[in-house]
Each structure stands twice: as C-alpha cells, then as structure tokens.
Design a protein that fits this description.
S-(hydroxymethyl)glutathione dehydrogenase [NAD(P)+] activity, 10 strands, two-stranded antiparallel ribbon, ADH-like_C, zinc, 6-stranded parallel β-sheet
Length: about 250
C-alpha cells in the first residue's frame, strides 16, 4: 500500500527538505500520509495545520467530505451515485446532501447499510446483486441517460469502471477515491472520453486545511463505536464486519 500510494517517497517526508523527522537506530521512520496520526506526538508541515475552536470535541475532528464538495462539485438539484456506503462513501453522500443534490443514489452489495445511509442524504439504493446486467446500465436507465456526478469509494476496479460508465455524456464527472490493488488497470472504451465524460481522482479530498473546512458539519452521526488503543483490533473487526462507520481510537486509555 505504501509503494502504491508513494507514501514513503512522496508523502512520507517533509515537503521543505524531503527528510523525515522520526528515526530509530539511525534509520528513518516515514510520516504515514504526511500525518502519522497513530503516534502520540507528531511533526506536520505548517500548511497542514489549522487552528480550531478550543472547545471543539477533538475526537470528532477527523471526518472530511472533500471528494464530493471540492472535486465532484455537484450542482444544486443534480443527481449523483455513490459507490460503496462505508465511512468514506457516507461522507461523500453527506457532501452531496450539503451541496444540494436531489437524487443521491447509494450503490452497495450490503443491503443492511441502506437504512443508515438515509441519515446522510441517500434517497435511492441499488444493489448490483439484484440485477442481471451491469450496474452502470441500471443507473443509466434509472436516471435517463446517466447521473451528473459519481464518486467511487470502494477501491474495486469493477466499481471504478461502473462509476465512470454511469455518468452522463457531455457533462458527467466521476471522482475515484478508493485505492485499487497494485496490479489493477482501469479500462473503458475510448468513446466514453470522446463523449466528454470527465475522470478525476483525489487525495484527502483536495482540502486546504486553513481555508476549506466547512463551518458546520454533523459529525456525530458518523461515529458508531469507540475503543481504547489497546483494543484497536476490535475497530478493524467492526469495519470488516460492516458494523461501524467510524470508530474512535482513544489514545489515552
């Protein structure tokens, strides 16, 4: 994963001098995705730091909606499909709701996620298992030509293809958020580009921390569990079982 995302070479060092601020026995320890949030103390570039209200609950300031608001940029009254209704997908849906999208379609193989997704603005649901044709064809027929925007949040190369091929010719935009396997290759017919569809990617939602954070966000509804750092494996179990959206890790326990 670190090699795939170029975390060590591009995102594991300080921007100003290309070096790390951590080491052990003379060997560098890289800054994971430039943040190193599992360490009790860290060093971050000043451009990544934003001052927040001292009264703000620190355990809730870790959720971002940038893939939708900053990159997909859905218009008020538009349609959008969200592929994957995990924590990232629900954040994308929340961003679509804030932007004013009226048709927010959630795409997921797990129907138990649909009720929870309604809290984040999702108002239509598609389970690919329920159809005998590609899900992009289902969505294109549902929206009469395709959605205005789509956001892929699973890392599945098949979902990425579907997300791209379900957007509308002429103005459709897809944003890829999920991280694919190292050897995966995105494939789609060139005519889809000739028909003026736009393919975008994002990292950290294209946020500028000091200026882009929204003033008001309903963060509490993302948090479903809280465990101590010593129980961090429980948090991964909750995610793998599809039971949690966001699980807070309490470093002090």
């Amino acid at each position: 994963m670190c090699d795939l995302l170029r975390i060590n070479t591009d995102r594991g060092v300080m921007i100003n001098d290309g070096r790390t601020r951590f080491s052990t026995n003379g060997q560098p320890i890289y800054h994971f995705v430039e943040t190193s949030t599992f360490s009790e103390y860290t060093v971050a570039h000043i451009g990544y730091v934003a001052k927040i209200n001292p009264a703000a609950p620190l355990d809730k300031y870790d959720l971002f909606l940038g893939a939708t608001l900053n990159v997909a940029k859905p218009q008020k009254g538009s349609s959008i499909a969200i592929f994957g209704l995990g924590a990232v997908g629900l954040a994308a849906a929340e961003g679509a709701r804030i932007a004013g999208a009226t048709r927010i379609i959630g795409v997921d193989f797990n129907p138990s996620r649909f009720d929870e997704a309604k809290k984040f603005g999702v108002n239509e649901f598609v389970n690919p298992k329920d159809y005998d044709k590609p899900v992009q064809e289902v969505i294109t027929e549902l929206i009469n030509g395709g959605v205005d925007r789509s956001v892929e949040c699973t890392g599945s190369i098949q979902a990425m293809t579907s997300a791209f091929e379900c957007i509308h010719d002429g103005w459709g935009v897809v944003v890829l958020v999920g991280v694919p396997n190292k050897d995966d290759a995105f494939k789609s017919h060139p005519v889809n580009f000739l028909n003026e569809r736009t393919l975008k990617d994002t990292f950290y939602g294209n946020y500028k921390p000091r200026s882009d954070l929204p003033a008001e966000l309903e963060l509490e509804k993302f948090i479903t569990h809280s465990v101590s750092f010593s129980e961090i494996n429980k948090a991964f179990e909750y995610r793998l079982q599809g039971k949690s959206i966001r699980c807070i890790i309490r470093m002090e326990d």
